[in-house]
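User: Could you check the structure of this?
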Amino acid sequence: LLQFEVVPGAPQPVQINKGFQVGARPADESEELVIFETAHRLFAAPAQLEALHAQTGGHFQTLDPRASFLPFGSQPLPGNALLLGLKGTVEPGPTLSLGFRVVSSEEAPPPSASGGSAPLPVMPPPLLEWSVFDGDRFVEAEVIFDETGQLQRSGVLELQLPAHWRLGRVPGLEAKEPLRWLRVRLAFGVYRQGPALAAVKLNMTRAVAARTTFNEALEPVADSRGRQWRL
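Assistant: Sure, the predicted structure tokens are below.
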């Protein structure tokens, strides 16, 4: 996973196309770089994650992004939510990419039947709703793809943002300054074990250790009658 940072004074989000190459020094400190290519297009937002709050009913709890936290509380219930406050003068968009690192834990065993032949009822899986607070109301943000499985494993999530995302103050939440608020709410369903997040980061995308070569002239292999070419 790669995270891109945009200078605060950038006038607009920066488009990073699929296949953008970055280099990293190998572990043996040799001179040749290891090349990675982005697997998806990314619109890197000139913003910073300024605040994190967990909402349970009308109560808001301030979270420390430097430590692991429970986004929907110790007992996730429909209606519980996580709010992320973004600081920046430029509206992100048209998409926003987030990276989540989930605290790994051993999966709990499935419940066993206690008498009778009828199986135990299966609880509906969790469904999360994403929205942005546009000035004075929440507006839905569509999920383009989600590698996290509703925040149950680490990965990248990309959102299609609405046309406008203005600064604002969420009612009931005390904030020093207006921010751009992103909310993920547990709409219905239950978690077998409530998620715990170790980190949330902006402008993240997946990359592969590969190098694509373009516009290469092929050389015919001698005596192959045009059947073999050399790269």
